[in-house]
Structure formats: structure tokens, C-alpha cells
Design goal:
Elements: E1 2-6, H1 9-19, H2 28-48, E2 60-65, E3 70-75, H3 82-89, H4 95-106, H5 115-118, E4 129-137, E5 144-149, E6 154-160, E7 166-173, H6 188-199, E8 206-213, E9 235-241, H7 258-268, E10 277-283, E11 289-295, E12 312-316, E13 319-325, E14 337-342, H8 351-356, H9 358-381, H10 383-402, H11 409-413, E15 419-420, H12 429-435, E16 443-447, H13 451-455, H14 461-466, E17 470-473, H15 476-485, E18 487-488, E19 491-495, H16 506-518, H17 520-529, E20 535-538, E21 547-551, H18 557-565, E22 574-578, H19 583-594, H20 596-613, H21 621-633
Helix pairs in contact: 2-6, 9-10, 10-15, 19-20, 20-21
Bound molecules: adenosine-5'-diphosphate (ADP).
Length: about 625
């Protein structure tokens, strides 16, 4: 019985796009169909592990027929039932195709050149074919079905006959146009090239018919003076396996070029750009495994969303077991894509078993070490590339340090680069340390948007005078990371606006102590005028500025802001620091001598200014504004 069904709207949209596509790499249709065939064989292979009746000599056959203008792709994989045909080919099953649709439908003039980036699977056939037939028989089923579609409104499914399990896809190529010569795909060399280019690592033989020359028979009349007659050499066709099959990660590292690895990455992980770097691991010994890891050029996922995307593909003995095995890679490295193939894991390993498996734990730990070692190599040998990498992924490494990862902390902390006040480019802690003058005892840091913002901070007064460098923390996570680090080597970290910076010498310190004693009452009065202030002190970090606001030893103002975003209302202690050498200090004293009310007003003005400089809105902006107006009218 023949049933005709309409494609869902979504599918239709995608098909329209394929049919009208001016995509320049239409040839990827073959890669997509071969990849489907290989997946289908994987599935059958997996079943055959427990049901030996299902095992077969797995292969994929690609044939061209010039007279019929058809290309067929035959696999002896798992096949499809009628329901599966409807569900998988009648609707968009694949997330890649969905994402593609979402992306292009948002744009006014969609850039179809990104088709390859998403890998639109089966539907890509319609870029080159006007009609596609799928003849298929699912394993353990008696009935075969024929799915036919012109890629327009509808498709039909009817009962059919087929001897073996598996699927035959026939593409009826479109007529050639001035711009597109679809008939090129019918050429033997073209098919061979495409298979080699895109599908070389497919684990099953991909066979195609190849012309071979018959051996030339020696004629006996060689001695005759007769001129040799030109004879058209005789040829015959032979089925030849075109792909090298050995998975690329099983090859010897020295035999594989970067270009091959990059191509592999792009096809397998559906990216259109080369990765920033690849890491190839071959380990033999107590534990034998291969790992192939890649860092995508642009972080494809937002750090804060897609928390579930983590994981490497897991193979055992070349057989695909699991996608996104998260036990293989720590959370903070979830941007790394790749796979692990081990000979030491059972084929029937379940997700639950993975968590407990010691081999997996060991592999994961090694994989993490290798990845960090590669980053470290990049930092050392290719600084520019590393900086680019860090701009995208640095925040992940920082979280790695912040969320405790024990043993790897040592490796990780030397991979952090931060902006600094004295340097043009980001520097490591080690580089900071190296340039420290001998008398400097701690690593200084400041939180701020950029160098300019930090430069303007009054707290920078003395540090700047001394010429000490200051690390500039720009990411929310930075300060939390510094706190969790505690020290770098033997050096403590000090925020320029918290605690004692140890910047003044003994004599100056004594002087300040003396003034403090003398002005005890004044300081007390100011403190009483400012109920939100924890303390009022004479500053040991200011030289030209009148005052500044610093945080106590606990959390900082930046942390307060970050925590507030997380609906946590913990506040940093506010300490108002006054510069006793500034004229304003005397002015303040005079005001208090005049009247307590005037003194309090001035104290509030200074405090509110200090708040503003620390990037905090005054507690009572209206009162602050009124005070300023009043002062101006005087
Ligand atoms: P994807 O392969 O990425 O899932 P496709 O649109 O290419 O997306 O294919 C949709 C589904 O159709 C596949 O997931 C698979 O279940 C099924 N399919 C496609 N080709 C074959 C095939 N040759 N044999 C068996 N099933 C297939």
C-alpha cells in the first residue's frame, strides 16, 4: 500500500533551502549520507555483539549510473522500520538541522554558506538530487519499505521487497545548469576523491567501482616490420575499497598531518573552522587508550549556559559507546571536544558504571593533564595564539582554580594571564613576580573595568609612586579565584583597596600614629556622623587624593556586587580613609569647630564622594545632591 504524507512545516522549510541553495560545497551530501550509513552499521554491529545472527561483512557501497543519472549508497546497517522512516526522514530529527533553521530564519538574507557548519544530514541530498528513494529493511523485520520524495510538499512510503537488512539510498541527480554540473558527481574519480576527502576514517569499507586496465597481451608479430597498430586498451571494473578505514586516532601520530586532524574535527564535530589546537594522545601500558582532543576556534557555547554539553565521546576497541561521557573531562574544560578510545573497558559499560570505573578515572586524569600541558606549551611557544585562546576560554580556567580541583591547581595557576597596570599585554603570576623590585613583598591587585579606570582610583596613589605593578581583575570570577589561590609561591595577594598595603616607611607610619592620637576626637565625631561606616582612619595609601573608601579584611566591594547579582546581600565593610596631609582634612576640622552640624555635613559629603569613586551609589543620593547645591550657593 502506498501512503503519501505531507512534510512538517519545519522540514519543508529546510528542504526549500536545500533545493534553492546556492551553497558552494554541495559535495558534502555524500559525506552526510555515508556518515548516516556508518552510524546505521554501528548500531547493527552493537546489536550483533549479543545477537551473532545479526553479524555481517559490513560495508558501504557507492555506485554511479551515468545512464540513469543516479548515485546509490548502500549499507548493510540497522535499516529502518516504517515508523522510523516517518519519524527520522519525514520530520527533522536532528538538533543540528534545527539549529541551522533557527539561525537562518532569524536573518534577513540568510548565509547559506554555513550549511556545512551544521551538517544538515539526510536532507542535504536534495541539494543535488531532484528525487530521492530510500529502500530499507530493518534488522529482525520481514518487511521492507520504499520511501520516495521529490523534496517538495510530501513523501510517500510503500511496501517493497529487499533481501538483506540495510538501506539503499538512490539519488536522481538534477539536470546540469550553467553554474552547476551535477553530472560531475557521476565520475569515478570525483566519487573517489570525495570519499577520501570526507570519509577516509569511516571504520567500514566504502567501496566503489573503479576502472582497471586489462594486462596488455604481447603480440607475436613483434618482429614483423609492420607498423604497430594502436589498440584501445581494454578495461574492466573492479570494486575497490577507497577509504583507509583505520580510525584516525588509531594511526601513528607521526603519520597524521594537522590538516587531516583538522578535517576530521570539522566533519565529526560539525564546525566550519579549524580548531585552535589539537591534542593527540597514544598511551600504551597498564592502561591502553587513544585520545584525540580539540579546542574549537570560537567557544561555541556560552560559558554560563549549556552546562550539559560537557563530555567526550567514548569508544572501546574502536566501537562507539557513548556520546558526551562527562566522566572523561572535568567541568571547567567542557569546551574541549574529542574522543577517547580504550581497549580496557567492557563494551556494555553503563553510565552508572562509568562513575565508579577506575580506568575511566585514570584516563580522565591523564587527559586533563595532557590538555593543560598543551595549553602550557601554547603559552610558552605561541603567545599570541594563547592570548586569543584565553580571551575565549580563560574564564573557564579561572573557574577551574576557583572550584577546587586539587592536584591540577599547580598546573592551572600558571596558565592564568591577567591585565596589569604596567604592562601592555596580559601577564602570568610568574611574570609579575619576576619583575617585582626586591623590596616589594606582595602581589598587588585592583578590580576595575580596565587600566584607565584603575589609574583613576585614589587608592593607586602610593603604589603608582613606587612604580609597583598592579594586576587588574576584570572578570567577576577573578577575585574569587585570587582568594581561593591564597598565595602565589610564597607571595600573598593584596587588594589595593583593602587592609594595610605596607607602602609607607616607619617614619611616616609614626607620624600618622601621632596625628591619629592628636585627632582622636575628630575622627570619633566623623565616625559618629556616618552610621554605615565601619571605621574612619588616616590613610596610608593616599598621596594626592583627599579620601577614599576601602573595604575591611573580609569581602571586597567587587565581590559584594557579584554576590548581589546572585541575590546575596552580604556587604563589605566600609572604611573611610582620610588623607591627613590634604587641605580638606584641615577644612573638615574647622567645620567641626564651627558647628557639629556643618562638620557632619562635610563628613557626609566626603563619604559620599568616596562611595562614588568606589563605584557605589550613595546611600541617600538626594541628600548628597542637596548638600552639594547648598555648598555651591554659599
Ligand atoms: P542524523 O543522521 O544526524 O541524525 P539525518 O537527518 O541525516 O540526521 O538522519 C535522521 C535519522 O534517519 C538518523 O538519525 C537515522 O536514525 C535515520 N537514518 C538516516 N540514514 C539512515 C541509514 N542509512 N540507515 C538507517 N537509518 C538512517
Amino acid at each position: 500500500m502506498k501512503e503519501t504524507k505531507k512534510f512538517k512545516t519545519e522540514t519543508k522549510k529546510l528542504l526549500d533551502m536545500m533545493i534553492n541553495s546556492i551553497y558552494t560545497h554541495k559535495e558534502i551530501f555524500l559525506r552526510e549520507l555515508i556518515s548516516n550509513a556508518s552510524d546505521a552499521i554501528d548500531k547493527r554491529h552493537y546489536l550483533a555483539l549479543t545477537d551473532t545472527n545479526l553479524s555481517a561483512d559490513y560495508e558501504i557501497l557507492v555506485e554511479a549510473n551515468k545512464d540513469e543519472r543516479t548515485i546509490t549508497i548502500t549499507d548493510n546497517g540497522i535499516g529502518m522500520t516504517q515508523k522510523e522512516l516517518e519519524e527520522h526522514l519525514g520530520t527533522i530529527a536532528k538538533s543540528g538541522s534545527k539549529e541551522f533553521l533557527e539561525k537562518v530564519s532569524k536573518e534577513q538574507s540568510p548565509d547559506v554558506d554555513i550549511i556545512g557548519q551544521f551538517g544538515v544530514g539526510f536532507y542535504s541530498a536534495f541539494m543535488v538530487a531532484e528525487k530521492v528513494d530510500v529502500l530499507t529493511k530493518a534488522v529482525n523485520s520481514d518487511q521492507a519499505y520504499l520511501f520516495t520524495s521529490m523534496g517538495l510538499e510530501s513523501y510517500s512510503i510503500e511496501d517493497a521487497t529487499k533481501d538483506d537488512y540495510g538501506t539503499i539510498i538512490t539519488l536522481h541527480l538534477r539536470e546540469d545548469t550553467e553554474d552547476e554540473k551535477y553530472s560531475d558527481y557521476l565520475e569515478e574519480y570525483e566519487l573517489k576523491d570525495l570519499i577520501k576527502k570526507y570519509s577516509d576514517y569511516v571504520r567500514y569499507p566504502i567501496k566503489t567501482w573503479v576502472t582497471k586496465y586489462d594486462p596488455v597481451e604481447d603480440s607475436d608479430d613483434a618482429d614483423d616490420n609492420k607498423e604497430k597498430e594502436y589498440k584501445e586498451p581494454k578495461t574492466h571494473l573492479e570494486l575497490e575499497t577507497v577509504n583507509s578505514m583505520l580510525p584516525i586516532w588509531k594511526k601513528n601520530k607521526s603519520e597524521v598531518t594537522d590538516e587531516e586532524l583538522n578535517n576530521f574535527y570539522k566533519t565529526k564535530f560539525m564546525d566550519y573552522q579549524d580548531p585552535i589546537t589539537n591534542i593527540f594522545v597514544n598511551v600504551e601500558g597498564m592502561l591502553t587508550y587513544n585520545a584525540l582532543l580539540f579546542v574549537p576556534k570560537k567557544s561555541m557555547y556560552d560559558f554560563y549556559s549549556d552546562r550539559n554539553e560537557r563530555g567526550l565521546q567514548l569508544y572501546t576497541k574502536g566501537i562507539f559507546i557513548l556520546d558526551r561521557c562527562k566522566e572523561l573531562i572535568p567541568e571547567y574544560l567542557r569546551f574541549v571536544k574529542g574522543l577517547v578510545d580504550s581497549a580496557d573497558l567492557p563494551l556494555n559499560i553503563s553510565r552508572e558504571m562509568l562513575q565508579e570505573d577506575r580506568a575511566i578515572k585514570k584516563i580522565a586524569s591523564n587527559v586533563e593533564k595532557k590538555i593543560l600541558a598543551e595549553f602550557s606549551r601554547m603559552l610558552k611557544n605561541d603567545r599570541e595564539k594563547y592570548e586569543e585562546f584565553f580571551a575565549d576560554y580563560g574564564v573557564n580556567l579561572k573557574y577551574g582554580l576557583y572550584e577546587d580541583y586539587g592536584a591540577k591547581k599547580e598546573q592551572l595557576k600558571d596558565l592564568i594571564i591577567l591585565d596589569s597596570f604596567n604592562e601592555e599585554k596580559k601577564i602570568t603570576f610568574a611574570e609579575y613576580k619576576e619583575k617585582m623590585p626586591e623590596e616589594q613583598k606582595v602581589i598587588y591587585y585592583a578590580c576595575g573595568k580596565n587600566k584607565e579606570a584603575v589609574e583613576k582610583m585614589p587608592e593607586m596613589d602610593l603604589v603608582k609612586k613606587k612604580g609597583y605593578d598592579v594586576l587588574i581583575l576584570t572578570d567577576d570570577v577573578d577575585e574569587f579565584m585570587i582568594h581561593s589561590l591564597d598565595k602565589y609561591d610564597d607571595l600573598e595577594f593584596k587588594s589595593i583597596n583593602q587592609g594595610d598595603l605596607g607602602l609607607i616607611d616607619e617614619e611616616e607610619a609614626k607620624k600618622i600614629e601621632q596625628i591619629k592620637e592628636e585627632k582622636k576626637d575628630l575622627l570619633e565625631k566623623i565616625k559618629n556622623a556616618l552610621p554605615n561606616v565601619k571605621d574612619v582612619v588616616l590613610s596610608k595609601r593616599l598621596s594626592d587624593s583627599a579620601c577614599c573608601l576601602t573595604a575591611g579584611e573580609g569581602i571586597s566591594f567587587e565581590m559584594e556586587k557579584v554576590l548581589k547579582q546572585q541575590h546575596n546581600d552580604i556587604k563589605a565593610d566600609r572604611v573611610l580613609e582620610l588623607n591627613p596631609n590634604h587641605e580638606i582634612f584641615n577644612k573638615l576640622e574647622k567645620a567641626y569647630n564651627e558647628s557639629e552640624e556643618l562638620g557632619n555635613k562635610y563628613a557626609n559629603l566626603l563619604y559620599n564622594q568616596a562611595l562614588l569613586m568606589a563605584g557605589i551609589i550613595p546611600d541617600d543620593p538626594k541628600a548628597f545632591s542637596n548638600d552639594i547645591v547648598e555648598l555651591m550657593l554659599k
